[in-house]
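Q: What does the assembly look like in three dimensions?
Context provided by user:
Components: two
Sequences:
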Amino acid sequence: MSLSAEDKARAAVLLRRDSEKISGSLPPLLAEADRLAMTVAMGVHGRKRAGIGETFWQYRQAMPGDVATSVDWRRSGRSDNLYIREMEWEAAQTVSIWADDSAAMDYKGPSAPRTKRERTVLLTLALSVLLVKAGERVSLLGSDAAQPRTGENQLRRMAMALAEPRPDRPDFGAPPQAKFQSSGRAVFFSDFMGARDEVFPALMHAADRNVAGCFVQVVDESEEEFPFDGRTVFQSMAGTVQFETQRARALRAAYRDKLAERREALETMARRTGWRCLIHRTSESPRTALLWLYMAIGGLR
Amino acid sequence: MLTVGPLAFLAPLLLLALVALPILWWLLRAVPPAPAKRAFPGVRLLLGLQDPERMPEKTPWWLLALRIAAIAAAILAFANPVFNPETDDGGTGPLLIVLDGGWASAPAWAEREARVADLLDAAGRSGRPVSLLNLAEPLSEDGPAFRDAADWAARLVALEPQAWSPDRAGAADWLAEASAGFDTIWLTDGVATPGDEAFAAALAAAGDVTVIRDGLDRVALTAPRFADGAVRADLLRTEATPRPSLRVTAFGPDPNGIERVLGEARVMFEGTGTETEALFDLPVELRNRVTRLAVPGVRSAGAVALTDDGLKRRKVGLLAGGQEGEGARLVSALFYLERALEPSADLIVAPLMDILLAAPDVIILADVGTLAGPERDALLSWIEGGGLLIRFAGPRLARSGEGQLEDDPLLPVRLRAGGRTVGGTMSWGAPKRLRPFPDASPFAGLELPADVAISSQVMAQPDPNLPERVIAALEDGTPLVTGRAQGDGRVVLFHVTANAEWSSLPLSGLFVEMLERLAVSARGAQPDAGELAGQTWVPVAVLDGFGELREPELLPGVDGARLVSEAPGPDMPPGIYAAGERRVAVNLFAPGDGIRPLEPLPDGFQEDSMTVVEETFLKPWLLAAALIALMVDILATLWLAGRLSGPRVTQGAALLLAAGLGLSAAPADAEGDDLALYATTSTVLAYVETGNARIDDVSRAGLLGLSGVLSRRTAIEPGEPVAVDLESQELSVFPFLYWPISETQPLPSDAAYGKLNAFLRSGGMILFDTRDANLGGRLGAGTPNGRALQRLAAKLDIPPLEPAPDDHVLTRTFYLLQDFPGRYANTDVWVEAAPDVEEVEGMPFRNLNDGVTPVVIGANDWAGAWAVSNSGQYMLPVGRGTGGGRQREIAYRFGVNLIMHVMTGNYKSDQVHVPALLERLGN
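A: Here is the predicted structure of the complete assembly.
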């Protein structure tokens, strides 16, 4: 289901009004993402750990293997032990997010609450909110917000970009051949249902740039269950690909095998490049996915 | 028309289409069901898969059979089959349908109408001209009018039975004049009338005759009479066969004027007797009220008998002026009155106050002079309440000087001092005789006996009003009887004595007749023509053929003589006729009348039955069957294509099933359940629907705006606001109701008030908003909305209120506020009055921590200030410039505080204890 013209107009008006507000509260999309992010932030405590930075974090006793230049002599002088002065880790990381906006993402199964695209947008923004709060730089690949930045303005820019879909969207999406910050992080949201020879090379391109990240396959429940029956002509969302079957339910097992095979391929590639894979169904709570993503990105560093 | 057994096809050519069915069979077999189209992103994964199973491309045989059956049914339907088709009657030439439309036809009138309609149909099919004749209605002068049957069918509805007997003798003459050459169908009622033979002969002369009888036993009631202390009426019938007992009921108004059953008599025909008597032994009070007797369950004018004055026995109070000795009976003032009235009235001879206690219809004062004090007042109020006072003159009245100086309400005219005496030994002139009664007088038409002579009388004072008050006068014009209306009653004065002292009037029959005309006495039996003659009797209510009383329409008055001498007919229907104060009932049957069954008819008359054989058109049924088969086909096709599964189909099936089981309320309940589920799964602000679209829009937008603010600023995240219909929706699921007051809102029902009170008692809050603070003044001070609020809230269980004090918890549940503005900011806001608690020195607010106020009442139009449109713009302006923006912000803050108060109660008030609690916990 694509956004209707009215919804778009409404979203734009809301965004503009809110952007004009002096007090500067977030647009509803952001607000929802913000709320979702808050639930996760409560469970995980930010980046409070030792690392590269300028702020004092803690003294710890020197262990064998520590470089001698790192010993804080002033502190060590007050006792018999050697202490090392640790700084809080403050280096801002760059997380590039690709949210697939192809027509296939607008699919909503008969019993699903939201389209895959809506869920993707929500997760993207919520993750961005969390990251920006933690001081990271975020970029949204393939949009106006592709330049990694941090701060509320970047969030708002991303929200704007996510609220209005691109005019000529392809049927199936593939990540753009963007420039990745080396040693940055990447999160790809998509259903990865496109042709294999289009999707995988693009994924490889990102992995080749020495970027670690996560694939999040957002799927609708009906895409896994395949609850169809009867004589059916299946079409892609934009109608470019067609397939006719005489009895849909007879294809169920074969379809599931194909899906499992596709996921297997995705995971194999992820394993090979050091990426991680998450399968997220729109019928599930976005909170679990967000928490997983947040942990995964933290764990990747 | 094609006839097959009891079936006939009106359009048989269409049956040829059945030949096409095999072609259809072949065509349907060849067309497989169309595939479904689905958008599905996973289609790429499907590419290259092979179908392991194949859908049958040919339609299964049973589905084909169903379709063929549906189409065959449709073809058969359009061939218009008829079951039991009516054939034409085989006759030719004109047809006369004769109805005995009298009282005896009324009980089975609907069947008669149906039979006539059937006959008209048959005649119409064979194209015969028809004439329809109702014997009880006046005959047209031109003879039978033969016209198209459809023309008559349109008039059939207007045909009604009449309340009198059919005039067969008249019809016989009328038919004899008409040209012969028509067949006749005669729907007879089976009751004999004079002239039956002539009528039958006239019909037979014209052509073939068919007689249709219904074989019912007719029942009729004669006019009621009063004899031996009971009301009696004869019950008549035609058939001499044993039959179970019948009831006869007496109806009349109760003291409140509502018609009720006053008595019931069970009567039995002895063996095969055709006549029996119904007897009602009723107390006088009830008997006087009886207006009609009727046989319940028999709808006919014949089974109703109306009563009139003949049954009424009036209570007459008699009072004489002086005490007479035992020996002077013949000169007693009351002797002649008692003799005249005794047979027909109940007499009360007692002191005046005792008479009045008995509530008499008439009081007669014979030569009573002065009445004074309470007696006079009581008598006067009795007259004004509808009593009839008749006074007779005499020496005492003449001497008393009563009514001589001024108008006396107890006398119709002023009297002159002294009287006059004529024809006596010491006077000139001869005794005077009566002048014939004028037409306007109630005595009009009475015979004047030659021997009535007046020798003494009291004289009326000449007066401009005198002529209209004179009811009877002497030859020389001196008034003899005068009368006048007083209140609802009447006062009548006979200027002579009630005994033979001053005149010979009391000795004559005229005296009794005059009393009768004054409605003092009721006649005992059937009146005779002479009694009624001379007056024009106007119908007051007449019976229709079914025995119901109706207003008479355009009926002229009837001369009195005809009332008794003639049988009821079109110009004198049975009913109640009135002249002056008197009423006479005209009934179909007088006592002693009887009814007989119709004599056997001459040979050559065919008999037919009343029952109508209905023809049945099968087209709608066949079409319905075809439609149902097609519906089943749709379902079967869907099932074959695998589209009969999934939640929506299940829901639809459940709905269909519910509808099929007649559970039509189920969807509404489901809607209510959905709403309740929505209201309970998220916090929802609700507003009361006023019925005014503008106000409801603002309320919705206001709550939407407030919900947005709450979501952004607080932990309360309400869903979309909900409109609440007080009558139908459950309120207990809402924490908060916004109720804008509008003049036009109707009062909720008692059930709705019950729900509202339960809502308030169980912790809900209503924010009443009269939205009229801009009109100035204080809340409820006489603005239209203020009055509407008082009206609406009158039945609500609302505790004592006070203007919100400065330390009310509403001022600090979330924001710290000093006042509660909406679009307007100048009035008090009323909340539940707090118990009287002393303010403690040094504490910022009093220690009040019980209960949430169930209502908040104000006039500031809060929803107006909160309202945002769907596109996020504020709907209504608040104030001017930045001050207005500030006021809107405060209004939002008030809303936040209010909802916080609803949700958290007096939590903020409890904070006052925090220091004390901490102290106790910590130390």
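Follow-up: The CA atoms of residues 108 and 115 of chain A lie 5 Å apart.
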